[in-house]
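Need tokens for this chain, all 503 residues.
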Amino acid sequence: MTIIRQEDLIASVAGALQYISYYHPVDYIRSLASAYEREESPAAKDAIAQILINSRMCAEGHRPICQDTGIVNAFVKVGMDVRFDAEMDLQQMIDEGVRRAYLDPDNKLRSSVLADPAGARKNTRDNTPSVVNVELVRGNTVEITVAAKGGGSEAKSKFAMLNPSDSIVEWVLKTVPTMGAGWCPPGMLGIGIGGTSEKAMLLAKESLMDSIDIQDLIARGPKTRAEELRIELYDKVNRLGIGAQGLGGLTTVLDVKVLDYPCHAANLPIAMIPNCAATRHAHIVLDGSGPVYLDPPSLSDWPKLTYDVSGARRVNLDTVTRAEVATWKPGEVLLLRGKLLTGRDAAHKRMTDILSRGEKLPVNFQDRFIYYVGPVDPVREEVVGPAGPTTATRMDKFTRQMLAETGLLGMVGKAERGPTAIEAIREFGAVYLMAVGGAAYLVSKAIHGARVLAFEDLGMEAIYEFDVVDMPVTVAVDSKGTSVHQTGPAEWQQRIAGIPILQ
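Here are the structure tokens for all 503 residues:
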């Protein structure tokens, strides 16, 4: 009988969560570095470079890979020959590990979990509770796999109950383009097939905990139908041309994982969950000998890249005019300098409610730019923690009113804009700029000052004013309404038609 002490489990979970906040899995880095070498799309190659540079910076500086430090998922396998020496139950112990990790003063992580999800949606302030899945198995150890799942990729989860005669491949290829780029490709797709509706979703999530090994699988050849599906989908999804950050390119997915389970004869449940560029998971095994801490990886596994911005246009946000904005071209790289406002979901809802009541906003947006971001709290000498963009489409429903009633000139966010927002941008001669999702620490180094202007009670969703110096962005929707997230993938899907992708 193995005895697992409460403090050992808590400390192990806390340590693993801190570890994955700043260390990418090495298999992901190697696969992404290979994709960078192969990439032929300049925009996609630039985005991958930023992700790789950001990852190395985080590994060196022990700060989060992404400002969205995720909701914690824990997959726990408890051996039947294990006894806990604990006053807390398993959920409470894991939550205490989460609490310690996310409130660690040396590397404080962002609290993103909201209680009362259909009501007040109040932040719990410590990122608890976590989502715990428990399996009782033979053995005398406790195995825990922890993952920090970002909201942008989780939002793109898909489920369908297909007919038994339907094609799984066709469903995936039809569904992936509808996910847009808000899940921050290149990443992984986890696919669960069979069981029941909730089992398929769990299989899809569990599959993302595996290492990237698609090239090894291709080299040895498939042995099961699930492995055949992995290879076929890896090739065909990459042929869609979506590319890094949805800008068009050769690599959309680094791997496709498939887990299956027997199902009812009348059903074919299928779930698909993506992992983003901030892939974060770790596996620990407690055997009763004490807490488990993971060894740091070697920085030699990270490529040494530098980000060249010598050809970018520099923009002064404090003096920029609509006439100047009208000269910016789709896909052009800009370096922003000056005062940049921030605001995301909760702030936009509050602002549009104020405007609808005919009241005055607490912040003047005339000819200003707003950055869709919820930054991590600063530590040590930082003025702000990692501050990468959030998915811009969530602000689409507020865009017309903001442009029409505040004089807002431009927006900065992640991924594509929908047709309603693009039409409003065109109508008001505004612009949408894209920052790279998965490069949050790199972006934060361009922020030299930060202060809260309004809605302080919203925490990371408050309206800040950032003082930025050479913040890199790409013109994603120009003032005429041309979107690179439409033109880029369309161009690269045609190019790829004549290029062998399967390595």
